[in-house]
Amino acid sequence: MESVLGRYRNLTILVGVLFLQVLGLAVQVKRTGDAENTRLIRVWAVDAITPLERALVWAQNDTSNLWHNYFFLRGVRAENRQLKQQIEQMRLEQVRLSEDAEQAHRLQQLLSFKEQVIAKTVPAQVIGSSGSDLSRSIYIDKGSNEGIATDMAVITAGGIVGKVLRVYPSTSLVLMINDQTSGVGAMLEKSRLQGVLKGTPDGAVILERVMSDEQVAPGDTVLSSGGDQIFPKGLPVGTVTKVSPGREMFLKIEVKPAADLSRLEEVLVVTEKQEQNAVVDSGVRVRAADILAQRLPSVPDKPVADAAAAAGASGTDKVVPPGQETGAGTKPLTPVESSVKPEAAQHAATPSIAKFAGVGPTAATPAGAKAVSTGSAQGVPVNGQTGNSQTGNSQAAKKTAPKPASGDPVVNSGSPNAAASNAAGGLAKPATARPKPPVTQPNPQPPATEDNPN
Amino acid sequence: MPITYTSGEQIEVYRFSIPVTVGVPLLALFLQAFVPRRLPFFSIFDLPLLVTIFFAMARRNPISGLFTGAAIGLVQDMLGAYPIGIYGIAKTVVGYGASSLGAKLDVENAGARLLVTLGFYLLHQAVYFTVARGMVSLTLNWSWSREILAGLANAVLGVGLYFLLDRFKQRT
After folding, report:
1. Highest-scoring range by mean pLDDT, A65-74, A112-121, B5-14, B74-83
2. B24: chain A residues, CB-CB within 8 Å
3. Cα–Cα 20 to 30 A to B47, which of A34, A369, A377, B76?
4. Per the CB < 8 Å rule, is B141 touching A138?
């Protein structure tokens, strides 16, 4: 026996070494907590390799920055001009999208939807890869010292990248979405069909678990569905490039990732997510009709007696003697302002809207008594609600009446007709004759006339 | 491309200094992890495999060769996302085979090195695929055209690399 072992000593050692490795591999595959079992030896390898990568990336970036920021500035002007044009186009697009988003938020709020938002991210730099053509994973230069933990989402501005697989003190291993062991809950933007996004051995990305009788076309956008509890819902994942019949009753949908996974340099790690009710962002949005209403000239002023009578009749508007009004920055209130729905009044009270609408607190400060609206502008439905149901909203705005030519104070009647006519675009004339707008009117727009209603 | 069969006495056995023994494999692992992020096509190369083949063939000692392959392969596994041992097993086999072959054949000329590297690359991939599919249940597709192309690319790079590393050889 000994002679046999001695004769085949090399082969025996080879078999022994292979057996030990196969045994170790089997133990790792059997146990689910593989990452923890092999953590220590992985830390050694990572500590040996990543400092070099980190140093090289640092040197490379510094050299690159020096070159691009100080020496190589050719074409910057042209690029700047191009970017400005792009910004203008994006602004226009933003206006359109913000309206849609606001409507969606409003509906979500009505339905008490919970939404996940990204509360905190940590930027990180990609310093290396796993060193294997078959394993699609990258190393980033942030680890547990910076608050990174396993299963955190890693994204870029373009789209999702992957999730944190292992964390070391100053580095982390990120498993990308094109690795065959990854899985991401995804859905198609238009049809809202949900599936599982997986990587293939050759590094492509496919969407699985979509039934073959569904309609999916190349070019469809794929978003994260949030079903994996890692990626927040709605993040861009990629675009469908090819649809073909897959195994069993499912489609094989090939997806081009939105993020360029082969050329990643900087990524964001989502370290904190919050779940909250959908909130309507009512403080900064204003409808075009409201802006138009604010720009219209005022209706004729009424005597104090009439105003008091009107206030008494409505029971909601108060007459405030001069000097007793509260709140800084009060400004003249055009009839349109007071008669529009309280929501619009609240909008106008915000600095951004005031600026946008050309309304300033310094213009045409009234000397006489001022009418403070309590938000009883009646009869104007706002998103399915009437102005009466929102009493109090516009009180915060503290609108005051404009100074009439005679200096008499006025009380806003909150006429629904006036509001309706202004909301409709200001084309309908008020029942009474229009006075000339104040000389110090802050609005640079010309006064409305019959020929020129705006 | 002559591959001459020589006796053990005619073949020189080389050794390497400790810095080279440790530093060259580490540098290969570092480059393998770093360069493909900047040059994606570089991922077709397997520098740790080339270094394993070089050391194994130069030392001509099967025990030394298999341990060199095991060590380099295991470190490569540690950097990846999959269980440790897949590359370890594949490179152990290659290290053993390359050193055994080096003990019997003169693999000092470029042609021989090209063929040997191509052959061991295919052996490495075959072992890797077998272990990865059989034990770790990874879904891998074997493509002869891709593997031969990658093998040729590695062989060409290997020939250049071997001549570079020949400078570190020390006669025993």
Report:
1. B74-83
2. none
3. A34
4. no
A76: burial class by Cβ within 10 Å (0-12, 13-18, 19+)? exposed
Task: List, for residues A61-73, the tens digit of each pLDDT value.
Answer: 778 777 777 777 7
How far is the C-alpha of B95 from the C-alpha of A432, rounded, in Å?
100
Distance from CA of B58 to the nearest CA of A (A): 17
| Structural domain containing residue A242 | 114-277
Residue B99 covered by a domain = yes
The total number of structural domains that make up chain A? 2
A35 phi, psi to nearest 5 deg:
-60, -40
Q: Which of residues 143-172 of B touch A (CB under 8 A)?
A: none
Q: How many CA atoms lie within 13 A of B22 on its CB side?
A: 5
Determine the Cα–Cα distance for residues B104 and B89; give it in Å rounded to an integer: 23
Tell me: do A251 and A323 sit in the same domain: no
Give CA torsion, residues A299, A302, A306, A309, to 10 deg: 50
Q: What are the pLDDT digits (tens) for A24-55? A: 888 888 775 555 566 777 888 888 888 888 88
Nearest CB neighbour to A133, from listed B43, B84, B138:
B43
Q: Does B78 touch chain A (CB under 8 A)?
A: yes
Among chain A residues, the shortest Cα distance to B96 is held by A14
At B28-61, the pLDDT tens digits run: 999 998 888 888 888 899 999 999 999 999 988 8
Q: Which of A3-12, A54-63, A270-279, B132-141 has the lowest mean pLDDT?
A: A270-279
What pLDDT does A426 receive?
38
Same domain, A202 and A305: no
A367: left (phi over 0), alpha (psi -120 to 50) or beta: alpha
B36 to chain A: which residues are within 8 Å by CB?
Answer: 129, 131, 133
Q: What's B141's domain CATH number?
A: 1.10.1760
Chain A contact for B25, CB < 8 A? no
Tell me which residue in A38, A129, A135 faces B37 most closely, judged by beta carbons: A129
Q: Please state the ipTM of this predicted complex.
A: 0.85
